[in-house]
Hints:
This protein is an alpha+beta fold and 1001 residues long.
Amino acid sequence: xxxxxxxxxxxxxxxxxxVAGPAPAEERPVASIDGAQLFESQVRxxxxxxxxxxxxxxxxxxxxxxxxxxxLQRGGESGPALVPGKPDESAIYLRSVAEEGERPEMPEKxxxxxxxxxxxxxxxxxxxxxxxxxVVLQEKPRADDSFWSVQPVRSEFAADTSIDSLxxxxxxxxGLAQSPEADRRTLIRRLSFDxxxxxxxxxxxxxxxxxxxxxxYERLIEELLGSPHYGERWAxxxxxIAHYADTHGFERDQLRPNAWRYRDYVVDxxxxxxxxxxxxxxxxxxxxLAPHDPQxxxxxxFLAAGPxxxxxxxxxxxxxxxxxxxxxxxxxxxxQVITASMGLTINxxxxxxxxxxxxxxxxxxxxxxxxxxxxxGERDVxxxxxxxxxxxxxxxNQELAAARAELAKLNGEGLDLADMIGGGxxxxxxxxxxxxxxRDGTLVTGKLGYQxxxxxxxxxxxxxxxxxxxxxxxxxxxxxxxxxxPVPVTDLESAADLPATNGHAWxxxxxxPLNAQRxxxxxxxDYAAKGHxxxxxxxxxxxxxxxxxxxxxHAMTGLRFTAVIGFGAEESVAASRADFTVYVDAExxxxxxxxxxxxxxxxxxxxxAAAKSLTxxxxxxxxxxxxxxxxxxxxxxxPDRSDVPLSDAERARTEQLPQEIAKREAALGxxxxxxxxxxxxSDSQPPVVRVHRRGNPEDEAxxxxxxxxxxxxxxxxxxxxxxxxxxxxxxxxxxxxxxxANPLTRRVIVNRLWHHHFGTGIVxxxxxFGFGGDRPSHPALLDWLAGELLRSGWSLKHIxxxxxxxxxxxxxxxxxxxxxxxxxxxxxxxxxQSPRRLDAESLHDAVLAVSGRLNLHRGGPGFxxxxxxxxxxxxxxxxxxxxxxxxxxxxxxxxxxxxPHRFLTTLDCPDPANLTPARVQTTTALQALALLNNDFMxxxxxxxxxxxxRDAATEEDRIRLAFQQAFQRPPLAGEIAGARELDLFALCxxxxxxxxxxxxx
Length: 1001
């Protein structure tokens, strides 16, 4: 009832105001006012800033909702608030103005509308109050231009300012002091894990502990910063931010076999202390900044590092689904770039203006426009190198073609096997049925004779109907005469050394004269031209020729099989490989494994006069890519050379040519493959981007141009118009992000470094420097470090040195201080160092290091600790790492998105589908069970015990060595006594599960 009385009082006041009239406003002709433009430019911000906070949502005051046009016209408990064209009858205007010297009724709290704002509101209503379709007003963001993180980085500090002076100043203000320095054993272990992610050897520990040089600690820092393992450690942190993995994710979680080059780029860049601004610029636009620098091209793998929906972007037939998948892709790229570099939650503006930070939805889509031409895919690392390799390959292939043609001419014409398979007699006669066993029919079990569920090296029975029409005739896949007549493909054990396949059934697609859909040229020779022939043989498949019938039909005695073998891969499967094998009487006589695209091999095989069958078999190379197609150029059965009349010179030439061919084939095989990387594939003229209302790609609004975020005032945020080429857009954004005056970029990265040295950042939300994030515990320190980064030329190693040489970093974590804990239980003021548990990968690597099995081989393709089963949705079955290749550092593990590694995930290894600026740390019973019983832990425990047993002679020496390896210290007397009660395996198992091993003090 009280609320209704207030409403009636308001109505009475409204009537009085309407009679008295508002303070006069400057009148303008209504016809001269563009109401829609006025709404977007001024009215929208006025309503958002001064009205919407009380008039939105379920708790709207007076029942009035001002967030939509419909709600505004509907009004509240007092009736309609707006009468378009009539400001003097619109409550929204009348309640916002008052006589001179009086406060208007609305807003109840906060600053009232200025005279200028009231005039704008009046003009808009007078112009008909146009409201753009589906615009929903949001409350004014809580952060504004005065927010701490967008203020210029403070640059004025006293000459003697340091990390310790700023920390101690804050501590003194709370009546606290720093803890004593940790001992040398603790410091070297802390430094080694922080900078390298690996434990120090006990020999290096003893050397450091006994070193009398007062600068021993500084020398140790330089040693570790100079180690190649430094880049591996800190690359792990950056790859978390980039949510890097080696597969696409989503339901078709396919392999990215060349993504690893980006991972290695990060490692190498950090080891080289590449200036951080250049590091960022290369990852955003390296292919534009330095198109001839292979590493700059590889750097753009950053933009492609996240998940990618193959079904939505490639397979779907739905345009709507494709647009939705592309929207998700662009959101991922924009979010990753801005979050990683500037620590802003830009994705919160996808569906509406950001509710906490002054970032508009239009600005968000302006960033979309920057990346609108960016696609993900395989690309050449160096186009120049790829061209050089291609030119060398073409030259060698042409020389091979000429030599092969000359040899074929000398050997005699022979019989064309492609013609024979097509129903002829090998001479183009078209007379069917000579020399080859034909099987008519189609496979009952599949449209193309393809079975996807057959286990490797197993047999699958297939069947043919009794009679079929002529149109569906084809050659049976493979059969081997064994004296009883043709043997079906399902009984191949009689063929020796048949290459293992990846589990596909034999493919019974017709093998006839090729209907060339993939080109007919091998080695520069078009085998579809007159005088040549080309046979296509699908993998997995093959054909057998009856040599006895061929000899009888063509009056031949000695035979030679000659052909040029090539791999007819399409560009989409250019990484595939195929195998080709020739059998004579079921005995393997010739084989080429791993044949790749643009590679050929020459066959010149003499066939014994008594041989009965010739079998040609194509298999898929076991690489998981099926339906490969092998080409046989000019496949012929020719008379043996001894049967061909030649001059002495011609006969000598027949002896020389095979050597020349072999030499060129060796040179061809030695050519390197052009290097590929999974990175940015650019569309030079991107499509136009429009704002998506409520984030819906099916509901587009105004067109936007490339742009950045106006909240950061260091440089203009517009980045050109839609005529600007794709690469220049990214370059402009890279320049804007790395501008020395950008208030966020330097603050964000020094905070990330601090976070990984102390377990928490100066800002405890490393990727949110907006209103929703944490406030800095030491704002002056953050700015001083950001200044040091700029003064050092953006050197990250310089920041590391400042941090790890500080007394703040070197504090003990074990000193009890109840008084300090009462004031600062979370240690945000840093009155001590904080103990930190090893992350999952560091624990994995430390266990391998202690067991003596750690393989420190750096770089290259990742190791696969899983069995890969090809399917529509590939299956990844993890195995226990058991072999040197699988004992590499976990950074080099082939990371699968949809199948997390169970052991590492249990230890809080993050999901690579998500950006991970700071890892969660849990303590669960499952972790304890995994550390005790996981097969990896048990095997490495045994290796640890074997190592200790081998390297020490007595029981006590073995106990001492085990403690030194695991804890980097000798055991105490009581620990020795307790260890004597355990066998060596049990002792090593206990040490690897102890907190002293699992934590950095």
